[in-house]
Design brief:
The structure is a single chain. The protein is α+β, with helices and mostly antiparallel strands and 144 residues long. It folds into 2 domains: 76 residues, Alpha-Beta Plaits, CATH 3.30.70; 56 residues, Alpha-Beta Plaits, CATH 3.30.70. Helices cover 20% and strands 22% of the residues. The strands form 4 sheets. It has a two-stranded antiparallel sheet with strand order 1-8. It has a two-stranded antiparallel ribbon with strand order 2-3. Strand 2 and strand 3 form a beta hairpin. The longest helix is centred in the N-terminal third of the chain and has 9 residues. The radius of gyration is 15 Å and the shape is globular. The N and C termini lie close together (6 Å). 30% of the residues are buried. The mean pLDDT is 94.
Length: 144
């Protein structure tokens, strides 16, 4: 399965991956309207970690044996072996956050407004995820 990784030499920590992820998962698909006018405000499914001069983007790694899915109390998270990704069934998610705690990559986001978990879905229907497509330094790339 392909996963998104960060080229640490190229990432400048601009956070545009977060902005474009947030926009891609908004109703309006407009970055200004999504943040200023949508309620609840859409949340990005990517995090930018900074530790000194090391900066990198963190998304779901779509693990073959995901800790988050094993920890999920309702079975809302599961590995779709056909597509090779970990998906969320939002009808089943109760927002208990056991998956958030169990993820070794810290890649899941709590959506407290909707009482559910959010995670990278690799932007289904797009040729490439919004974070990768809009990274000005091409710091994000797909690899196995």
């Amino acid at each position: 399965m392909n996963r998104i990784y960060t080229n640490l030499e190229a990432c400048m920590g601009c956070g545009l991956c977060r902005v474009h992820c947030q926009t891609a998962h908004s109703k309006t698909k407009d970055p200004v309207r999504a943040v200023k006018r949508e309620s609840p405000r859409p949340l990005p499914r990517v995090k930018v970690e900074r530790q000194g001069h090391i900066i990198f983007s963190v998304q779901c790694r779509h693990c073959d044996e995901p800790h988050c899915a094993r920890a999920c109390l309702t079975g809302a998270l599961h590995h779709d072996s056909d597509r090779g990704i970990v998906v969320v069934d939002y009808e089943r998610c109760i927002g208990c956050w056991t998956c958030v705690i169990s993820c070794p990559n810290g890649a899941l986001t709590r959506d407290t407004a909707n009482h559910r978990v959010l995670k990278c879905d690799l932007c289904p229907g797009e040729t490439e995820p919004a974070c990768m497509a809009n990274c000005p330094n091409e710091a994000l790339y797909m690899a196995e």
